[in-house]
Amino acid sequence: MVDEHRPEPTPRDRPLGPRCRLCRGPADGALCPGCRDDLPRPASFEDPGHPAVTAVVAACRYAWPVDRLVHAMKFHGDLVAARGLGEVLAAAVAEREAEALVPVPLHRRRLAERGFNQALEIARPVAATTGAALWTRCAVRRRATAAQSGLDARQRRTNIRGAFGVRGDPSGVRIAIIDDVVTTGGTTAELARALRAAGAAAVEVWAVARADPPADDGP
């Protein structure tokens, strides 16, 4: 039933309408070409920093407006923003080779609280663009961990140690881990270690953004 006291929604009010998530101008996806081109870009490829990781690809620097989109996605359930970030990452990795994508899993309690896994939502456009299989049940987070954002680099490594398990057999498969933001790389490195231990041939990390790591207090 139409509520006569409620104005008819305009195209910019419709969450799936053809409007850019940033400038609200016409767009063929979640972001218009101009806003996509203006996103802050890092060096194309990052030092893996861990023997289990073959390469790290970050599509953007974690700066405005990427941080705004990530925040809207994670804390306000903005799945249109998630699709836009996934499209940006898909363009950055279009020439990379991976047979399967593994989104960083959430613990079941965090998943119940948030209602969705942002890494999985980001991975969907990447899978559609690259043709890689999207493995949604390959990795599991065995235990709930503290939020990495409030920890220094050393605490992050301790916090995430042994947090992931692998289901199924990834033997011989080239895998790309999908994440929203990589900071120290501790989370994705720990997941990569578990995947390599289970037989994965190679593991890359594909992330929307790279953030500056926090200070590492102590040796």
Description:
This protein is an alpha/beta fold and 219 residues long. 32% of the residues lie in helices and 18% in strands. The protein has seven helices and eight strands, in the order H-E-E-H-H-E-H-H-E-E-H-E-E-H-E. Strands 1-2-8-7-3-4 form a six-stranded mixed beta sheet, sandwiched between helices. Strands 5-6 form a two-stranded antiparallel ribbon. A hairpin with an 8-residue loop joins strand 1 and strand 2. It is globular.
Brief synopsis:
With 219 residues, this protein is of the alpha/beta class. It contains seven helices and eight strands, in the order H-E-E-H-H-E-H-H-E-E-H-E-E-H-E.
List keywords for this structure.
single chain; alpha/beta; 219 residues; two-stranded antiparallel sheet; disordered N terminus
Write the layout of secondary structure elements.
Elements: H1 33-38, E1 45-46, E2 55-61, H2 66-76, H3 79-92, E3 100-103, H4 108-114, H5 118-130, E4 133-134, E5 139-141, H6 153-160, E6 164-166, E7 174-182, H7 186-197, E8 202-210
Parallel strand pairs: 2-8, 3-4, 3-7, 7-8
Antiparallel strand pairs: 1-2, 5-6
Helix pairs in contact: 2-3, 3-5
Largest sheet: 6 strands, mixed
- Please mark out the parts with pLDDT under 50 across 5 or more consecutive residues, or reply none: 1-14
Count of strand segments = 8
Work out the helicity level.
25-40%
User: Helical stretch count?
Assistant: 7
